[in-house]
Design goal:
Blueprint (H helix, E strand, L loop, with lengths): L10 H23 L6 H32 L7 H10 L9 E5 L5 H9 L4 E6 L10 H10 L6 E5 L12 E7 L10 H10 L1 E12 L2 H4 L2 H10 L4 E6 L8 H6 L5 E7 L1
Parallel strand pairs: 1-2, 1-4, 2-3, 4-5
Antiparallel strand pairs: 5-7, 6-7
Helix pairs in contact: 1-2, 3-4
Length: 264
């Protein structure tokens, strides 16, 4: 059985947007080339609006299609796989240890960490909202079984804003492109909530779009963690060849992507 990690850019959204573009151009042709609308001013305005809408939808469909191809696990680029495996490399769990992946989606990162740490256990949590309807707990469990790690993985429904775990519960915490999707005026607080459940001496690897607009001053946050006693903290830019090129980051709207990693 082959795992199915899906694609964060749903194919249905790509095809739906493309269909919308085609529909707009079709209506523009009908409106502009027939006598359906008698008033020439209204006809011209309606045709123009439909052409603009079709062009915008077509551009969006093209962008979505390129994103879908880049992040596909079955495609040539396989950026998702590169990112997941790159984050998992930072996770080392002790014998009998436990890790937590926040916003596990289809289970990819939790499973990658479990594969690398067969002597330990990994828990993945997610709210599995309707915006990512193809991601769910049964999918995670099926993927874990396909990868041979169902014995040391577990998946639960959870909330990144308020984790249902006591302080210092885990030997490692991870996440990938999760927190920037959560409406918040202070995403650094969300990071602190994740780090709250990390044991002293535990490792963390949190990958996201850490731009100033989304997170504020992340260099100041790094210094804050160091002042709190964290043994090691680094913010690594992943857009300069680590996970993607600067050009890819720009056209994918992923500029600011970085890995916050270290040891508590």
């Amino acid at each position: 059985m082959k795992p199915d990690y899906k694609n964060w850019m749903p194919k249905g959204m790509v095809l739906g947007t493309l269909a919308g573009a085609i529909g707009c151009f079709g209506l523009a042709a009908v409106t502009g080339c027939t006598g359906l609308i008698k008033n020439e001013t209204v006809k011209a305005a309606s045709t123009g609006i439909l052409l603009i809408a079709g062009t915008a939808a077509g551009g969006a469909a093209l962008w979505m299609g390129l994103m879908y191809r880049a992040f596909s696990y079955d495609g040539k680029r396989q950026m998702s796989r590169q990112i997941i495996e790159g984050i998992a490399e930072h996770v080392k769990l002790p014998e009998g240890g436990t890790g937590l992946d926040v916003g596990c989606g289809s289970g990819a990162l939790a499973i990658a960490c479990a594969r690398r740490n067969p002597q330990a256990r990994f828990i993945g949590i997610d709210r599995w909202g309707k915006e990512y309807a193809s991601f769910n707990k049964p999918l995670c469990e099926a993927n874990a079984k396909a990868e041979g790690v169902s014995g040391n993985t577990e998946f639960r429904k959870g909330n990144a804003l308020k984790l249902d775990f006591p302080d210092e519960s885990f030997d490692a915490v991870t996440s990938n492109y999760v927190y920037h999707n959560i409406p918040s005026s202070d995403r650094q607080e969300i990071l602190l909530e994740t780090l709250r459940v990390l044991k002293k001496g535990g490792t963390f690897a949190l990958h996201d779009i850490f731009s100033k607009a989304k997170y504020g001053d992340m260099q100041a946050f790094v210094q804050k963690l160091r002042a709190m006693g964290y043994e090691q903290v680094e913010l690594v830019d992943t857009t300069r060849g680590m996970f993607m090129s600067p050009g890819e980051a720009r056209w994918m709207a992923l500029s600011g992507s970085a890995l916050l990693a270290g040891k508590k």
